[in-house]
């Protein structure tokens, strides 16, 4: 199949999503990862396909919030001092892109992807036989105080008008009735009804990967950092020996930057880390619950009640820091009758972020046959099938179903 063979590097949701869509278009696809599919970044998240997330996480401009983060008084975002010198430039660009005029433009491009997340997951879920992992229940965003209630409800109604994002506003009594396990009385909540709960995100990626193999794709373990151009082909070292293909896709999430640097590119990718831990016995929740006080999500997951943290800015590979999860667990115990921890240590994962909050999708500038598919930040699990389709259409010479220009690698 000359000219139609592809190496997809990365076995997370973005890599598997791209690999499956390429396979549907007749490419001979080999998926390469150092571990099994779904065992890295896609394993740990808030267990949601987030249809409501049409506005990406912007850099705060509120001086008081920035001061709280800087002084270590806001658990939703923390940082390592030794990472800050390398973060100055990308965070400065992130801050500039979060200014109102530019941010509104970014929202339009981000929402163009998010609007397709459920419709692109749906056929893969059906074909993979993964309905048992899903609950189409949305999640509840708690509103702790009355001072925030009007602003939050107005925001929810605006998203409904502008982007057809569905929600139900719950007052204090309605919230208490819908989540009896909640021990603290809140002003209310926004119940975002569109998102899908996935009780085991890593398992969903594995089901998609198994579907990919059943339909003729190949999965091998290998070292993506050995990728090299040899004549008209791309080669990579694997447990099965050196394999080659006419094209290669880099979908390595937070590790993409290392390979791109080796190949001579300089993308302003930076890392946000996150933690989770499971607890038993389960908190009897009807939906996941997001609490803005601690920047956490509490999720009824397969392994137990999953408590996730906010964002930690750190170097890739830096030792874990327990502070954020300690704060999240303490807050979770205020809100719920949280049981004992299941794992001895929390899971730690890395999110690959760009200063303009948009993923990098498209052809590399200087290497024929090299394609990029990374930089999805917090939403790789949500967007992997949607952006995987976009990439596959571009590689196949089709008219893309979404305008690809906002995500082009050449913008950096």
UniProtKB/TrEMBL annotation:
Q: Which UniProt keywords apply?
A: Oxidoreductase
Keyword presence, Oxidoreductase: yes
Keyword presence, Membrane: no
Domain FAD dependent oxidoreductase residue range list: 6-394
Spell out the PANTHER family in the cross-references.
GLYCINE OXIDASE (PTHR13847:SF289), SARCOSINE DEHYDROGENASE-RELATED (PTHR13847)
Q: What is this protein called?
A: FAD-binding oxidoreductase
What organism is listed for this UniProt entry?
Acetobacter sacchari
